Amino acid sequence: MIERTRNADAPLDARVHAALVAMRTPASVTHVAAERVAAHAILANAPARRATRRSMLAAAALAIVALSSLAARKLTQHAPPLAIAAVVLPAAPPVTAPALRPVRATGARPIVFELDAPGARAVQVIGDFNDWSRSTSSMQQGSDGRWRITTLLPPGRYVYAFLIDGQRFRRDPQRMPVEDRDFGITGSELVVGEAP
Amino acid sequence: MLQRRALHLEPPHAAASSPVADVLARRARDGDAGAFSALVEHLQPRAVRFATQMTGAAGDDVDDIVQDAWIRTHRALPRYDSGRAFESWYFTILANCCRSLRVRLQRLHLRREPLDDQLRDDTLDPLMATGTRSDVARVHRALATLPAAQRETFLLHYVEEFGYEEIAVITGAGVSACKMRAKRAMDAVRELLREDTSDD
User: Fold this and answer.
1) Lowest pLDDT segment from A161-175, B121-135, B178-192
2) What are the E-state strand segments in A23-146?
3) What is the CATH number of the domain that holds B80?
4) A12 in contact with B at a CB cutoff of 8 Å?
5) Would you call A185 helix, strand, or coil by DSSP?
6) B20 in helix, strand or coil?
7) For the whole model, what pTM was predicted?
8) How many CB atoms sit inside 10 A of residue B90's CB?
9) Predicted ipTM?
10) Domains of chain A
């Protein structure tokens, strides 16, 4: 009985096998096209890093506006000690999104990262949006002692964490711990944009 | 029995990674731009094939996905652990880019047409037998109905020829889950081919 079933399936298996072999045919890519892709990848990274640094300058200006707004809403006054939060500002000002990624991003939004870290000498926000770089997203300490930085992010899902004094890695306890698949680092999840 | 063995649907190679890619990746990581170009040329045909079949995108959309994956790969290259097969490391990033595209499109409420409508005839070899051509379209149609995780595992195993252990690393799922996903996807493919044949 089993043998008969196997025999009955043999033509079907043959067709699946033939289809799989056909699907394994590699796409046609010319040497020139591959060279262009490689060159673009190499070139895109250097400007991207410069753009990130430029965005930090823009972020500093935005942070002043954001802090005024936050102070008006008394958000900082009610923040619990040691609370860590990434605040998404409701409205996106008409600024150009930094070239963080060559994706078809629409509607980059200013994101304020906040951290209360008493005694810290330096704090950075690190995440997949800046390739977990320790040098591109230094936070500034406000007069209230909290550390903040504002950055523009296109809609999407991000993984981030804070680095205190270049040594202490801290996830946001108020957010879901997730792993950045590209880098294998576990951080906190931030979703920018409308929920799916 | 011999016939049965010849028709076995498991991919011929348990692992798809090649030492060529590992050597090129190590050189590229050490700053050899020529090695990075060679690496792209070595893997690009497979990358385009996977992105096309995984997302149903074509033309510029596929180019964008693969380009994004290479940019991210180049950025992360200094952290590449040469103890790991480069191809599975790269496919981790590529698969993530494919997933991100779908999530982004869903978030923007831009639902894509079914995969089989996206896979244009000109992506297939014109010399392919007509029957096989139809069956490839049927396989794509079956895959389009599956959850993304099953489709991804099916393509990684049966088309990209990665072993289950490597797929587990690429997808972050367990080995058993990967085997189950591949089996369910294969069952769906076989079922659709069987039904389509009976409809003819």
Assistant:
1) B121-135
2) 84-88, 109-115, 123-127, 140-141
3) 1.10.1740.10
4) yes
5) strand
6) helix
7) 0.57
8) 24
9) 0.79
10) 31-192 (2.60.40.10)
- Mean pLDDT lowest among A173-187, B55-69, B86-100: A173-187
| A153-A156-A158 Cα angle (round to 5) | 80
Task: Looking at mean pLDDT, say which of A130-139, A180-189, B27-36 comes out highest.
Answer: B27-36
Q: Output the six-digit token pair for A69.
A: 């707004």
Nearest to B106 among A9, A35, A196 (CB): A196
CA–chain centroid gap for B169, Å, is 14
Contact yes or no for B53 and A28 at CB 8 A:
no
- Chain B residues within an 8 Å CB radius of A195: 107
Kindly determine whether residue A156 and residue B103, on different chains, have CB atoms separated by under 8 Å: yes
Identify the pLDDT of residue B155. Answer: 95
Residues 6+ away with beta carbon under 8 Å from B12: B161
Mutation for B interface: A24, A37, A131, most B CBs within 10 A: A37
Whether B21 is covered by a domain: the verdict is yes
Query: How far apart are the C-alpha atoms of B64 and B73, rounded to whole Å?
Result: 14
At position B6, the amino acid (one-letter code) is A
Residues 89-128, chain A, touching B (beta carbon < 8 A): 101-104, 106
Phi-psi bin for A82: left (phi > 0), alpha (psi -120 to 50), beta?
left
| B132: closest CA of chain A, how far (Å) | 6
* A-B contacts at Cβ under 8 angstroms: 158
Domains identified in chain B, total number: 1
Nearest to B91 by CA among A120, A148, A66, A182: A182
Q: What is the pLDDT of residue B156?
A: 95
Question: CA angle at residue B105 from B173 to A38, to 5 degrees?
Answer: 75
Helix, strand or coil for residue A59? helix
- Cα distances (Å, whole numbers) of residue A173 to A113, A156, A167: 14, 21, 18
What's the rounded Cα separation, in Å, for the pair B134 and A170? 53
In a domain, B137, yes or no: yes
The whole-chain average pLDDT of chain B stands at: 80
Query: What residue numbers bound the domain in which B52 lies?
Result: 11-199
* In a domain? residue B179: yes
